[in-house]
Amino acid sequence: MRVFLDLDGVLCDFVGGALLAHGVPWHFIPAPGQWDLASQLGLTPNQFWDPLQGFDFWANLAPTDDCAGILTAVESRFGTDPVYLLTSPAHSSGCYAGKFAWVKRHLPAYLSRLLLVPAVSKPVLAGPGSLLIDDSDANVAAFRQAGGWGILLPRSWNARHAEFGRSLPCLIEDMAQIDRLTSYHNT
Ligand SMILES: [Mg+2]
């Protein structure tokens, strides 16, 4: 199994960084299951994205609270060799460079397995031996549609928001189930 791990909202805290960049109080909680942060903040898409285009924003995002736990769980299940970071940069050179810097700083072992791919192109990596772990309902659905396996990591902003408090146990259970299904299929 080749495993593709998303960065934003999975391993790095894009939402927290975006709220901070807009000076939003720490106690603001996005509406459950709602992706559109801009409208929740009363901003146009341009107003929302303008402060998020530069190198510094992307390079300085904090790891998510469960970043280390997610990596440990994935590597324990599948090993390290087949695991890639698959992340969709915003359309700015600062974002591309910032993501490289973030991985170099926090996950240097993954620098040679860092795939910067626009979201619409993620499904080209789908197939019966490919698993995408992502926080985006749309990305996971498209990957499954293209013939791959997908795990939607529970986050407050996606369809699994009710399970957000147990994201890591859900991931571990889902990976075990997929591992069982594919092992059965291959024997
Ligand atoms: Mg994401």
Compact overview of the structure:
The chain has 187 residues and is an alpha/beta fold. It is built from eight helices and five strands; from the N terminus they run βαααααβαββαβα. The model has no long low-confidence stretch (mean pLDDT 93).
List the helices and strands and how they pair.
Elements: E1 2-5, H1 14-21, H2 37-40, H3 45-49, H4 55-59, H5 67-78, E2 83-87, H6 93-106, E3 114-116, E4 130-134, H7 137-145, E5 149-152, H8 167-186
Parallel strand pairs: 1-2, 1-4, 2-3, 4-5
Helix pairs in contact: 5-8
Bound molecules: magnesium ion (MG).
Magnesium ion is lined by residues 6, 8-10, 134-136.
Describe the overall structure.
This protein is α/β, with parallel strands linked by helices. The protein is 41% helix and 11% strand. It contains 8 helices and 5 strands, in the order βαααααβαββαβα. Strands 3-2-1-4-5 form a 5-stranded parallel β-sheet, with helices on both faces. α5 runs parallel beside α8. The longest helix is centred in the C-terminal third of the chain and has 20 residues. 32% of the residues are buried. The site of magnesium ion has 7 residues, from loops.
